[in-house]
Amino acid sequence: MNEDLLAKIRLIRSPSIGPVTFRQLLARFGSADAALAAIPDLAARGGGKPPVIATAASARAEMDRVEKFGARYLALGRGLYPRLLAELPAAPPLLIAKGDFGLLDRQSVAIVGARNASAAACRFARGLAHDLGQQGLAVVSGLARGIDAAAHDGALGSGTIGIVAGGIDIFYPPENEDRQRAMFDHGLVIAEMPPGTEPRARHFPYRNRIIAGLSLGTIVVEAAPKSGSLITARLAAEAGRDVMAVPGSPLDPRAQGCNELIREGATLIQNAADVIETIRPMDGRVQSGNRPFEAAAGEAIDPDDSVRRSIEELLGPSPVPVDELVRLSGQPSGPVQMVLLELDLAGRLDRHAGGKVSLR
């Protein structure tokens, strides 16, 4: 039994501990075991009760289920965990994967789009994925209907990575079961959620950040306004990755999202050569490997009660950037992050996109 992995599973499966809190705990305490031991005291300092922590028995049961399914864990900061994905502040601490792990050392590009895509768009996505695969790129998508399915089909012979919103042993949508099983043998399937998790609406944005974070760039083939594909494109842009879009007819609502992306500065894509030209400047940042946890909490300085009060007084129900708290408090980053960690574990802090926090 891998005790370090067991402790990490307990930590991240605990209801109140998300990726940012997980990363800060490991940066501060060095190991998941030490973090688990420190949580009650941290929560008490934050003025709350200790959060519910996942049991060792539940973590062992999950590990057994992953092993029996023939999958394995990828842990942030170690081994095969993808370097590009690790750059995200909210990178998943643990992934579960099955298939060809060699694909993680290949440059990859995401292709996403509408579930109710037109036949022409699906044909274009399939051909584009095939051509990108012939250039040695792995194609990443979300194993959904429409454009995702077409992209996986086009690149199945050369290398494709599917990110699922539920557990790795759940086939969703059901008609994708044969496709997902084929990718276990000839591609790679990755999940953030534990086995047996049925995908819910709240899981898809988490999946989308993995698609964007794993890839040098994201291509949107067809997307209506406010679609999930546009969320993936926004996440890619926030991560400093290229956003590309295929133009479509202004008469087709499914093309409005792509056309709007191009208006806002996304690169117009017509073929694989356009994609290669766009992403090549980002070469050299892909390979997986060991990466130590960065000290996300800054200097390991334990704040005193006056510092805690001053930082808590700066917080309210409106989200505020952590950098602004550091500036207004006059404190180094380390104590500010530690106070926020204590409040978080006490159940008194909400974390928002863009590195913002608010008092619950």
Radius of gyration, CA atoms, in whole angstroms: 21 Å
User: Based on helices, strands and strand pairing, what is the structural class?
Assistant: alpha/beta
**Secondary-structure element order, as H and E?**
HHHHEHEEHEHEHEHEHEHEHHEHHEE
- Beta-sheet strand percentage? 5-15%
Count the helices. How many? 15
Percentage of helical residues?
40-55%
Give unreliable regions as ranges.
294-299
The whole-number mean of residue pLDDT values reads 92
Counting structural domains, the number is 2
CATH class of the largest domain: Alpha Beta
Biggest beta sheet summary: 9 strands, mixed
The CATH level-2 architecture of the largest domain is identified as: 3-Layer(aba) Sandwich
CATH topology-level name of the largest domain: Rossmann fold
The global form is globular
Query: In what order do the strands lie side by side in the largest sheet?
Result: 1-2-6-5-4-3-7-8-9
**Structure summary, number of beta strands:** 12
How far apart the termini lie comes to 38 Å
Provide an overview of this structure.
The protein has 360 residues and is α/β, with parallel strands linked by helices. It folds into 2 domains: 3-76 and 293-359, Orthogonal Bundle (Arc Repressor Mutant, subunit A), CATH 1.10.10.10; 83-282, Rossmann fold (3-Layer(aba) Sandwich). It is built from 15 helices and 12 strands. It has helices spanning 3-12, 19-29, 32-45, 56-69, 83-86, 119-134, 147-155, 177-186, 203-214, 228-238, 256-263, 272-279, 305-314, 322-329, 333-345, and strands spanning 72-75, 94-99, 108-112, 138-141, 160-164, 188-191, 217-220, 242-245, 267-268, 320-321, 349-352, 356-359. The strands form 2 sheets. A 9-stranded mixed β-sheet has the order 1-2-6-5-4-3-7-8-9, with helices on both faces. A 3-stranded antiparallel β-sheet has the order 10-12-11. α1 (3-12) packs parallel to α3 (32-45). The model is unreliable at 294-299 (pLDDT under 50).
